[in-house]
Amino acid sequence: MGYIDLSGVTKVYNVGDTMIHALDDVSFDIEEGEICAVVGPSGAGKTTLLNMLGGMDACTYGHISVDGRVITGFTKRELMMYRRNDVGFIFQSYNLVPNLTAIENLELVATLSNKAVDCMELMKLVGLEHRANLFPSQLSGGEQQRVAIARALVKKPKLLLCDEPTGALDYETGIQILRLIKKASEVMNMTVLIITHNNAISPMADRVVSMKSGKISQIAINQTPMPVERIEW
Amino acid sequence: MRNKLRFISVVIIVALGISFYIGIKSASPKMSSTANNYFNEYNLLDVRVTSRIPFSDDDINRISGLENVDSVVKSRYVDAIVCIGKSAIVDNNGLEMSCRVSEFNAWKANKFNDIKENDPLYVNRLKLVEGRFPQKDSECVIDSRAAKLYDAINIGTELTLNGDGSSITDSLKTDKLTIVGTVDSPMYISDERGSTQVGSGSLSAFIYVDSKSFSTDDYNELSVKISKSENFNKFEDTYDTIVTELAEKIRDISSDVIDVKLAEIKNDYNKKIEDKEREISSFETSSKKQLEEKTKEIAEFKNYVNSEDSILAAEKEKSEKNKVSTKNALNSAQSKFNTLKASYDANVEKFEGSSQKINGYSELKKLYDDLSVKHTNDKKNLDKLESAKNTAKTDLQNAKTEESKAAQAVSNAESRISSLSSDISKLKNEISSLESDRTSQKNKVASLDSEISDLQSKIDALTVKLNEGTITTSERINLSSYRATISGRRAERSDAQQKLDNYSSQIDTKNSSISNKNKEIDSLNNSMSSLKNAQTTAANNVALMQTKYDSAKSTYDSAKTSYDADKATLNKYKSSMDALTSGQTELLTLQKTIESQKAQLESMKVSLTVAQINYSLAVRNGDVKIQQAQLQLNNAKERYYSIDNEYTELKDEIDQKKANLNGDLKMLKNTLKNVDSITWNTTVQTNLSGHQSFISSMENINSMSTIFPLIFLFTAMVACFVIMLKNVEDERNSIGLFKAFGYSPFTIVGKYVSYSSIAWAFGSVIGIIMGTCLFPNAIYSIYGSIYNIPDINIAFNAKYIFRGLVVSFLTTTVASVVATFRELRHHPAVLMRPRAITFNRRAVVEFFPAVWLKISYGMKLLVRTVSRSRKRVVVGTLAIACCTALVLSALGLLNSTSDVKNAQYGKKGVFNYDLQIVLNADQTPDDSVTLDKLKADTNVDASMLISNISYDISATQSRWKGFDTAHVIVPSDIESVGKYVNFDVVSGSKKLDSDSVVISEKMAEDLDLKVGNTAYFTDNDGNVYSAVIGGIVENYIDHYVYMSPETYKNVFFEEPVYKYILCVLKDYLTDNEVATLSSDYLKTEEVAGVTNADSLADSVDISIEQVLALVVIFVAAACVLAAIVMYTISNVNISERTHEIANIKVIGFSDGEVLLYVIRENIVSTAIGVLIGLIGGIFLHTALVNYISVENVMYGNHIAWWSYIVAIVIIALVAVAAALPILYKISRVNVPETLKAIE
């Protein structure tokens, strides 16, 4: 059994009379410290999978365990504590709080966690210490995403969930972001799950899970992940 | 769903705003119109004219002729005290019930009542409440309020009228009236019934009888109606000016008309005065004669007394002389006796002292003798003891010598043994050396023996060989040497043997010598033990002897010591024995002297007794004579005094009579002077009793309605405005879509206008209904219990409704039109994108890094949130501030009003007395049975008679510019008045002196009276009196004027009428005991009523509760508004920030934390709002206290600390109530959906 273990995860939505299987019997493992890419076309159930892993949604059947804890059986409050302490999120649309400055966005998370990292240190890590006091609207997309990464790292999560982290960015910036994620994973020994429809990203991952229509079509283990710099799309 | 809720909020806010605005604004106009209708329908007079001199037809005609006068109706009235049977009816203030009996036309009244026939000459129409109108002369209708207030007043009750000095039957056909109905009159719309001359001074009720019941033809009242009276609003200045001018004109007429009448009256009075003066002078002459006669009589008796007095003096002198001479003789005898007695006493004393001393000595002598005998015996004994001691000493010495001899023998034997022992050891040493020599010699012998035997064996061998012939030469040589050696050796051996033997013999001798010596030692040791025994025996003997000696010695020593001590004592005693002998001789001589003196004393005593008897005889004789003289003098004096008393009595009587006559004269003169000031009294409608307070009540509501509804409406409308703008903003996407589809701007605007105008319309309708029905009725019902006015009629007040509608229309519909047009300026593409709100505005504090860097993260968040939504914060703050101010001022009012009761009646309040007793008849402090009874009662601390009469007090001669009806209190004892009433001086002095009065605070404020001003007192007959104000004192309920009896006489030209007793009871009495005490006094013949001060306090509550009810309406409305506004703005806030909420929920915020994060701005606006509201509330409270001036009550102006806390708690609850639905909404935010939606 891996560090993260999904077995038989199924999510069914009732839309009117019809039932839609967003996820259908999904099972796979991720080892600790691994970077796992989940690839697939839109509607393959990637985001639903991420919501399950992030404790934002409950699955209909199956169970998920993270670091030995079965999160599918968690109460609402336990889920909240799980999100608060164990999971970091990075979204395609950054999701920064617009009326707080970059550093204040980090501090917002720091106030919740008791193992918070120094916020300014993280800003330095993502190379934005000189722009820490600007509002999100005054930052470029790449900078905002870097702030979002820093924010996700404040609480030193066990698991970093990235939903199309480069989706809204150009190639150069995208590479930069991916490099940052990789670096963070190495520095903090963090398990990373990247969801993307961009197949080009998969070579940098240790494990690539391909999905289609809510089902896993292929799981590939990459013995020698490619350095981020060499990825092209 | 979101829009539906918002729609409902808008409807509620609009409804609240409009209803409150309309309701409060139109309350006062509605009260006014209701009252106007009532006055018109019941044909209330416009000007009332009264006079002490009856009106003539000519007077009426002159008034009718005045401009503007429509009609003048004459009528009669008489004031009376109302009794049932013979006892007066008393209200809960202990005051007698006094009524005004007026006439009316019962026939007209019935017609009006039945068919509403409008006869303009039927004025001041009565409204029948119960029963019917009178049909007989002996029937009447009574004030409906009186029927409610007095249990004794019911339909069917027969009342007896008492004129209080004048006869009722002068005016009425009968003084017994049966009540047949109860009525209301537009003349009296409040509790006030006006003042009167009878009873306590204020009227308690009115009674109407049919005109036929009056017997007199003296009409003393006119009701004047102006033309088109019903067209005027009675509470507006136009009407006031017209009637005031008319009243002045009528008074002008009066001065013309009355002069003629006055001349007659004056003549009359002048004649009366002359008569009085004549009476006084004749009385003076007659009384003078009487007095002179009495004076003569007194002089005669004075002479007689004087002669008796001189006789007494002579008698006294004689007796005194006699007394002195006998006394001298007695004194000399006495002193002689005394000296002798003293010397005798000294001698006796001396004798006794000496004999006592001698007695002491003889005891000593006995002791001395005993001791001497013992001493001689002791001496013999001592000698014996000494010889025994010496024998013991010799024995001891012998024993010691023997012991030393024995010791000597032992030591000799021991030294012999030791010398023998040393010899033995010497011998033994010699033996041992000899033995070693012997041993060596023995060895030598043995070695020689072995050498010989060896040589022998060799010789033998060689001999054999020789014998055999086998011997060699060498062997032969050897044999020979051997043979030589062996012989030498044999010689050596014998020598050695010899020596050996020698040694052995020596040893033997020595051994025998040792054994000899040992034998000797043994014998010595044997004799030694016997020697030692002898020594021990000797030593024991010595010890024995020693003990014997020691005991003998100690016996001797102790005997010796006691002997020596006795000897010393004896020596001491010896000197005392000498003194004894001399003392005995002295004693004998003293005894002789004493005996001779004793004889002398006896004879002296006899002569002394003789002197004493002489003296006492002289004294007794003198006293008897003096007593006789004194008796005669006393008789004379007694007669003299009685005559003198007669004189004084006569004089007092004459003085009293003179004073009375002079008082009568003075009063006549004053009345004459006063006659000049007699005019017709005019009262315009608005000055009728009760109308003034009704007007001020309306003004109170009016002034309150100037600020509150506006603030309220403003807050509501600003909230509406914000919601409307937000609404359109949320719809910008659809607006863009419509525009893209090609709809014309007006169609699009129409769509949103319809939404807002429907909300507005709903809200307005609800608001108008509530505003016209609910609020005015609520307010009216509060005042309705005070005023006797028909129920309010529901009439739309178009002006305020219109204003309310316009304002709300502007803030809802127009606001949304403007907002839609604003959005429509943009291109559809822009509209369909979510509005790019950029939050990059720096907060002000950020420019002060010193502050910004130091404040906590929570504070920073707060600053960010507030700077993000300033508009909402302002609206929220406004709503909360408005609400807080209202709540605080309401609570403050509660504090201020409850203060009043305590301040007046509570402990340390203005009134200290516990009971007020009303008497049946006037009394003076000297002849009041009840007062005496009270003074004797142990439960009563203090009691005092007072006079209490009501007057109208004004600052000018006419009551025109306003007046207050006050109790004029005259304490019979001005020194102790402080026990019953606390005078806390506001200004001036509280002293009740002879030329000034003390008045209460609120009245001074109302009438703008200051210390040093003159106050005018008007009684019901229109007589005006004046007094200078010397002080103003604190007072909270009712108006009071305090003055001394002297001042009262100076001001009103008559003696005060004492009809009340104030009592202070002992503190320890329980309520029940007080009640028992009250009823005990009530049973007394003299007492008409007893009032507990507590019940007076209770009667104050009613009006205060009404004020509070009004404020409660305000507060409830404000709280609802604040809660809805707070809820709505947070709701708007949430819908704007759903994405952000989802975002922070993902981060791991709990619902509670999200709520705190989101409603931070509400917390800020609540906090700021509460702060502003508290400050505003303080001002509002002051304004309220000034506005709401219930008649006769002065409110304090302070807010208790707990009111602040309660206000804050209420607002906090409102804020929490508004936040709870938000929490629910937060929990319902679907995180994944919301986050997905943005992509």
Report on the architecture of this protein.
The complex is a heterodimer of chains A (233) and B (1239). Chain A is an alpha/beta fold and 233 residues long. Chain A is 28% helix and 28% strand. In chain A, the strands form two sheets. In chain A, strands 6-7-8-3-9-10 form a six-stranded mixed beta sheet, with helices on both faces. In chain A, helix 3 (102-110) packs parallel to helix 5 (141-153) and helix 5 (141-153) runs parallel beside helix 6 (171-188). Chain A is globular and about 50 Å long. The two termini of chain A are 34 Å apart. The model of chain A has no long low-confidence stretch (mean pLDDT 87). With 1239 residues, chain B is of the alpha+beta class. In chain B, the strands form three sheets. In chain B, strands 3-5-10-7-9-8 form a six-stranded mixed barrel. Chain B has a six-stranded mixed barrel with strand order 14-15-20-17-19-18. In chain B, helix 9 runs antiparallel to helix 19 (1093-1136), helix 14 (870-905) packs antiparallel against helix 19 (1093-1136) and helix 21 crosses helix 23. The chains are: A alpha/beta (233), B alpha+beta (1239). At the A-B interface, helix 2 and helix 3 of A face helix 13, helix 20 and helix 24 of B.
Outline:
The complex is a heterodimer of chains A (233) and B (1239). Chain A has 233 residues and is of the alpha/beta class.
Comma- or semicolon-separated keywords:
heterodimer; A: 233 residues; alpha/beta; Rossmann fold; six-stranded mixed sheet; four-stranded antiparallel sheet; 28% helix; B: Helix Hairpins; six-stranded mixed beta barrel; 22 strands
Helix and strand topology:
The complex is a heterodimer of chains A (233) and B (1239).
Chain A lengths: L3 E12 L2 E13 L4 E5 L6 H8 L7 E6 L2 E2 L5 H10 L1 E4 L11 H9 L8 H7 L15 H13 L5 E5 L7 H18 L2 E6 L10 E6 L2 E7 L12
Parallel strand pairs in A: 3-8, 3-9, 6-7, 7-8
Antiparallel strand pairs in A: 1-2, 1-4, 4-5, 9-10
Chain B lengths: L1 H40 L5 E4 L6 H8 L4 E7 L1 E8 L2 E2 L9 E7 L1 H10 L11 E5 L7 E5 H6 L8 E5 L13 E9 L20 E6 L10 E6 L10 H232 L4 H203 L5 E4 L6 H40 L1 H10 L3 H40 L13 H27 L3 H5 L16 H4 L4 H12 L1 H36 L9 E9 L5 H8 L3 E15 L8 E9 L13 E4 L7 E5 H7 L6 E5 L5 E10 L6 E3 L2 H8 L5 E8 L5 H12 L4 E6 H44 L1 H10 L3 H8 L1 H28 L13 H28 L2 H7 L2
Parallel strand pairs in B: 5-10, 7-9, 15-20, 17-19
Antiparallel strand pairs in B: 1-11, 1-12, 2-11, 3-4, 3-5, 3-8, 6-9, 7-10, 8-9, 13-21, 13-22, 14-15, 14-18, 14-21, 16-19, 17-20, 18-19
Helix pairs in contact in B: 1-7, 1-9, 1-10, 1-19, 5-6, 7-10, 7-14, 7-19, 9-10, 9-19, 14-19, 14-22, 14-23, 19-23, 20-24, 21-23, 22-23
